[in-house]
Amino acid sequence: MDGVSGDIISEAKSLDQQFEYPDRSIVSYAQNREDVLLWRAFHRLETGFYIDVGAHDPEIISVTRAFYERGWSGVNIEPDPFFAEKLRRMRERDRTLQVALGRCPGKAVLFDFGDSGLSTTKQDIAIDTLVSGRQVGQRDVEVMTLSGILAEIAGQDVHFLKIDVEGAEARVIAGAATVLKSMRPILLLEVNDKALRAQGNCADSLIGTLRGDLSYEIFVFSAITGLLERQTDGDPLSANVVAIPGERISATLTPS
């Protein structure tokens, strides 16, 4: 065995020891096995609660489906009417809100690309999608803040919060900054710098807010092992990141 291979195996074992492997396995439905990593953190819970912002399809590349199958429930945020109706039909224990999230409440125009998963409230992104030849409709959609939704479920423990909103992640976080300082769920976010910049933000700014203002630590999915590893300044971000409240890192990653 060469030195590089030995280093890779040692790193994999070191990272692997951060997790207590569940005695109950799950089928992964998420795009990059994010549900598996979350399950390792929460497998001791008989039931739990999630919020899925940009829930999309209740089955296909769903981060929350495996949890729902094990008795969990939560709130789905999905402005696209096609997927919102599908979520209501297939997730009877969940509450599904057909709204968009933003920095402040109001109204927005949803550029509706049907069941493609490409619907957006940003006109410039919609124009780029139109260039590809897709048909689009327009409809008004209510905009709420994440803080407003969290206030409606005050007293409910939120175990994790997934945000995948095609570049609007920073605006969603901005609409919940105060509440996230007291209600401390684990966050799973898509961080796409190009998409964030199209909405007037950037990956560095979003990560800086999470670390500085909200005291979260950032973890990325290792390209070597697929497990979580702490992201440090200068290290590349994975397509999705996990943000863990600083005070919960030990309990989340270390076997009890």
Walk me through what this model shows:
This protein is α/β, with parallel strands linked by helices and 256 residues long. It has a single domain, classed as Vaccinia Virus protein VP39 (Rossmann fold, 3-Layer(aba) Sandwich). The protein contains eleven helices and eleven strands. It has helices spanning 3-16, 34-42, 65-68, 81-90, 123-131, 146-152, 169-174, 177-180, 193-198, 203-213, 249-253; strands spanning 49-53, 73-77, 95-97, 100-101, 106-112, 137-144, 160-163, 186-190, 216-221, 228-230, 240-245. The chain has an eight-stranded mixed beta sheet with strand order 3-2-1-7-8-11-9-10, sandwiched between helices. The chain is globular and about 45 Å long. Mean pLDDT is 79; it is low at 4-17.
Task: Record keyword descriptors for this entry.
256 residues; alpha/beta; Rossmann fold; eight-stranded mixed sheet; 21% strand; globular
